[in-house]
Amino acid sequence: MIEEKLALFGGPKTIGRTFKKYNPIGPEEVAAAKEVVESGVLSQYLGVWHADFYGGPKVQEFERASESYFNVKHAITVNSWTSGLVAAIGAIGIEPGDEVIVSPWTMSASATAILHWNAIPVFADIESRTFCLDPDSVRANITPYTKAIMAVDIFGHSANMEAICEIAQEFGLKVISDSAQSPSAKYHGRYAGTIADIGGFSLNYHKHIHTGEGGILVTDDDVLAEKLRLIRNHAEVVVGPKGHTDLVNMIGHNFRLGEIECAIGIEQLKKLDRLVASRQKAAERITEGLRALEGLTLPIVEEECTHVYYVYPMTLNCDQLGVSRERIVEALIAEGVEGLLIGYQNIHLLPMYQNKIAYGSKGFPWSAGFCQREVVYTKGICPVAEQLHDESYIGYAICVAEMEESEVELLVQAFRKVWKNMGELQ
Question: Which of 83, 262, 271, 396 could form a disulfide with 58 if both were Cys (CB 3.0 to 4.6 A apart)?
Fold first, then answer.
């Protein structure tokens, strides 16, 4: 029974407790980590050309298991997905001043990985249905200086990879899939992240596969795979003894994931299908419960795709409802709804891009002689993304709670109660 009076106006909360925190770590992961600790081999990398250049036994096991699961030739582990993005941009042979098209709706590292190599991020707009890159906007932003497209599979749904790859082929561009939030999502029968030249996934603590920190790069290209491994582990020292003659971007780092994390990742990967299915089941129940609410657009799943619901994304038609997004969110929070995301982010509007201050104080790399044109980041260049962020988008962080059946029911009741009393909020 839904109480009539909103909690915002003194009525009882619909949700009177904090939902159980999502925790996919079980006894299998504990035992695997304990085994590594007791072995004394917490890492077995050497930053020289040696049998241990590629890491220890758990690194190798996790990488082979990932290759098998995602059906790719090469999986390369890294210590964070940010590191993975930096390695991916370097591996495709980016030059200073090259332009890489990227979404404004993503974690900031998608763009700063481009800046890391003194290349220039160019922001294309997103689709209002999937919140992923709009291929028409990608095409409109291509210049003679474009080198690559970074397609972000945001919230758990793949970008339109067929259209993006067609554009890339037409213009001779590389494609990188930032599938941090979308491991196990399907696009036309293939896993998200595996269709691009290089893709990959985050292993951060609130992602589907949780090792604390970490990332997995995937590719079917032998040359790119070896460049990724070199950039991961002190490339500049290794290339000579290894006989690697392509020195482009062979500036090495320590992007190495440890044995404990990989041991945990092996166990997590075994559970991935079940973990994803639990998110999908919860999302389907939420959709069924909220489907009839006017002025609320629920997540879509494009044909021949699956959604893994890192976030449950929604949009509000505030004109139809006659109530501002902020007021609706205020009412939902009063009902006990935690984990609401008001807007997302438009990283082209961050101070770094607005002021073009990154390396030092002189506007580098935008001010450097290798930049062939002025790239603008003014508000208005991504109108769909900006409108969604400023006015209509709300998300629910479905990834942070277990979302058992009782919790889903309480969430649905809270939304229905607010909608039933929408007139009081006007």
Answer: 262
Cβ atoms of 394 and 329 closer than 8 Å? yes
Q: Residue ranges per domain, the chain? A: 7-23+272-343+386-425, 27-268
User: Nearest-CA neighbor of 16 among 414, 300, 417, 415?
Assistant: 414
Sequential DSSP letters for 291-326: TT-TTEEPP---TTB-B--SSEEEEE-HHHHTS-HH
Q: How far apart are CA 180 and CA 78, in angstroms?
A: 13
Architecture of domain 27-268: 3-Layer(aba) Sandwich (3.40)
Q: Which one, of 78, 72, 71, 37, lies nearest residue 55 by Cα? A: 78
**Residues in CB range of 284: below 8 A, 6 or more apart:** none
Does the model's pTM come out above 0.70? yes
**What are the CA-CA distances from residue 197 to residues 148, 232, 248 (Å)?**
10, 17, 18
Q: What are the tens digits of pLDDT across the range 9-38?
A: 999 999 999 999 999 999 999 999 999 999
Residue closest to 313 by CA, chosen among 332, 324, 298: 298
Cβ(73)–Cβ(94) below 8 Å: no
- Encode pLDDT of 152-195 as tens digits: 999 999 999 999 999 999 999 999 999 999 999 999 999 999 99
Spatial CA neighbour of 73 closest among 226, 255, 189, 235: 226
- Region 42-64: mean pLDDT is 97
Question: Which residues are paired to 77 by β-bridges?
Answer: 216
Residue 232 near residue 100, CB atoms below 8 Å = no
Judged by DSSP in three states, 119 sits in coil
The CATH number of the structural domain formed by 7-23+272-343+386-425 is 3.90.1150.10
Spatial distance between the Cα atoms of 149 and 219, rounded to a whole number of angstroms: 16
Arithmetic mean of pLDDT, 198-202: 98
Detail the DSSP E strand segments found in 257-354: 296-297, 312-316, 340-342
- As given in the structure block, the two tokens for residue 296 are 């609320």
